[in-house]
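_Backbone structure tokens_
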Amino acid sequence: MPRRRRRIESLKCYEICFRARDTLPLVARKIIEMIVQHALARSQRDEKLYLCHDVWNGSHPHLLVLTKDAEQCKRFYTEVQKKITDCLKRLFGLDYLCIWEGRPTVALIADVDEAINRISYLYANPAQDNLETSIERFPGISSWSDFLQIIEEPNLSVSVSQEVLRLRLPNFPKFQSFSPSFAQEQGGIRLLKRRNSETQFLIRHPNMWMRAFGIRETGVPGINRLIVKKLRRREELANWLRKLSGKSVLGSMKLKSQPILKPHKPKKKERKVFYFGSCNEARKQFLGEFEEFCLECANCFKEWLSGNLLVQWPPGAFKPPLPPNMNIIEFLY
């Protein structure tokens, strides 16, 4: 079955998610935090989009963004994936490393109610996945502390900036084990800090997603408080379900000592979601329009293959590469 076509609209709110095939590359270790911060900041050096909220959860991250340009959005998540992979290859002296499964999910968030729901879900991930009881106790990478700084700010454009190291690949230490001790990890971090003096800024815009829905600045604090309220409900439900089933959380100490690239069997594959909305009628309308878009793209590609390079593709379409326009045959006499 061919992959579903992708369309990314400008100045819209999207959730981006990509997951590892069979390992845990995003464990809650400080050296992984340095790598992810570098990857995000470096990929955002030319401000490809607005990064609003993010949580990095062992095998996968959830990122909520406001888009600018469709092509730049695609470059952002592919660059982040590549930079993390390249850094881990250097860290362990590997010639080849294939971490990520398939292509990332890029799902449109259609309305403000669903955006509030998705952000609360994003921060509730550690509790719902039985990693920790709350987002505050989660030792992994997230934008939660940045969000708390501006939660009462009646300002859509407010940003939180963090100065992080730019990591050069030749300057990486080489770990002999995927499970370095605390002392070995701290030694590697010190070496990275000594070898890399150039810094860059990781900038998040926690309220910017509201621009997609025409929210006025006076309404920003109320929406942020509602996000926290929904988050607490999710965490309380997760804690109640654990008590009911006799389970417990993995805990901060174990999370911080997990091996990097630890073997991990992901959940069973499901159909990728590319639309989140609270209104069923709007969802049906969107899916109908998107099917028409996909059909039009398929017809355009057929025209392209037949030699009609002047065919007009629908707005927002990512055009696939063309095959060679002729075969070269060498005749031997």
Q: What stands out?
A: The chain has a mean pLDDT of 91. Helices lie at 30-43, 70-92, 112-128, 144-149, 182-195, 220-245, 252-256, 280-305.
